[in-house]
Amino acid sequence: MSRRRYLSKRNDAADPYKPAAGAQKHQAVPLPGCVMHGMLHIDAIAWISRTLRCVQGDEKPQARHFRNFHATLKVQTFDDIDQCVKIATTALALAPEATLGLRELAINAVEHGNLEIDFDHKSELLAGGTWQNEIERRLASAEYCDRFASVELLRNGEQFTIHITDQGPGFNWRQHLDDDTAPKHMLHGRGMSIAMAGGFDSLAYDGVGNQVTIRGTCVPDQSA
């Protein structure tokens, strides 16, 4: 059975969230850093576009516009991650702990995956106060500047799935998921522990560790 899960087709005749006649929806819309797959209400598209451009102050679209949602975002920097997590939190109706867990996994994909800063090296950088400089140096270097992590967001009704894939060599994820070997009481290294406490229904790494899939249940819409 394929690892990847796709949104099921809905019967419009039985769909209480079917838009009114004349409502505008678009399919497979490309935006800078994001591709939305399938049909999506134009209000949702406009909000995502504004979020990607860091435009503040606009109201979010109605929650029902995201009940069937499929998008893939590309992230390279921590700013990209902030926008990606903001979109995911709204579109997938994530609980606060799930939002925090997703952010930690996305940071790991960029920092440890694409930029290949391992645990020991990060410890040295933090101790020397040069961590931020090294992040910026690697993001600008020829070796790493073209790398990105893809974050695929899928929602089918009240269930969501997120696939995160980086372009790094992977890592020993089993060690970090083991309570006996996972880092504790340290300046860093607790990202995966935070992600594991995110309230997801499941969290699973694939292969060498440069792909992770999380699944969970959306927070109920209080305005419905």
Structure description:
- The structure is a single chain.
- With 224 residues, the protein is of the alpha+beta class.
- It has one domain (24-47, 68-217): Heat Shock Protein 90, CATH 3.30.565.
- It has helices at residues 42-52, 78-91, 96-114, 119-128, 131-140, 173-177, 191-196; strands at 25-31, 34-41, 68-75, 149-156, 159-165, 202-206, 211-217.
- The chain has a seven-stranded antiparallel beta sheet with strand order 1-2-3-4-5-7-6.
- Strand 1 (25-31) and strand 2 (34-41) form a beta hairpin.
- Helix 2 (78-91) packs antiparallel against helix 3 (96-114).
- The chain is globular and about 45 Å long.
- 28% of the residues are buried.
Helix fraction, binned, reads 25-40%
| Topology-level CATH name | Heat Shock Protein 90
Task: Note the total helix count.
Answer: 7
Mean of residue pLDDT values: 81
Distance between the termini: 35 Å
Q: Tell me about the largest β-sheet.
A: 7 strands, antiparallel
CATH uppermost class: Alpha Beta
Give me the strand/helix succession.
Answer: EEHEHHHHEEHHEE
- Main-sheet strand order equals 1-2-3-4-5-7-6
CATH superfamily: Histidine kinase-like ATPase, C-terminal domain
Number of domains: 1
Q: Please give the CATH architecture.
A: 2-Layer Sandwich
Shape: globular
Protein structure class: alpha+beta
Which percent band covers the strand fraction? Answer: 15-25%
The radius of gyration over CA amounts to 18 Å
The parts where pLDDT drops under 50 for at least 5 residues are 1-23
